[in-house]
Amino acid sequence: MTHEVVGRWAAEKNDRAFLAFLEDGTVRGSDGANAIATSWSEEAEGLMIAPSMTTLMAAPGMLTWVPKARRVEPDGNRLNLFDTADNHLGVLLRQPPGSADTNEGR
């Protein structure tokens, strides 16, 4: 069964910053400069993202809060991201299927 979080979610002002949730439990993405590779699972606390491995480059417009997300909460076409202390980090927007390759950021 497909979960509502499966798909690509990108920042409104920089679509190079995104998270792509795959049905197999993997997450691929970018903060706009660095690749993100991790996994997600449904837990009692909600939809959780495991800590990710990432490079440490800097670039204009990068969103440093994207790799800090540990819990996500879908709300229609918006995906709210929260850190380990449950602070709201920001929002990503659902991208139409096929709008970008979910393998980006590898």
Secondary-structure map with pairings?
Blueprint: E1 7-10, E2 17-21, E3 26-31, E4 35-43, E5 46-49, E6 53-54, E7 71-75, E8 78-82, E9 88-94
Antiparallel strand pairs: 1-2, 1-9, 2-3, 3-4, 4-5, 4-6, 5-7, 7-8, 8-9
Task: Tell me the radius of gyration.
Answer: 12 Å
* Total number of strands: 9
The average pLDDT value, as a whole number, equals 90
- The strand order across the widest sheet is 1-2-3-4-5-7-8-9
How would you characterize the overall build of this protein?
This protein is mostly beta strands. Helix content is 0%, strand content 44%. The chain has no helices and 9 strands. The protein has strands at 7-10, 17-21, 26-31, 35-43, 46-49, 53-54, 71-75, 78-82, 88-94. An 8-stranded antiparallel beta barrel has the order 1-2-3-4-5-7-8-9. Strand 3 and strand 4 (35-43) form a beta hairpin. The chain is globular. Mean pLDDT is 90; it is low at 102-106.
Care to give the gist of this entry?
The protein is mostly beta strands and 106 residues long. Helix content is 0%, strand content 44%.
Q: Keywords for this structure?
A:
44% strand; disordered C terminus; 8-stranded antiparallel beta barrel; mainly beta; 106 residues
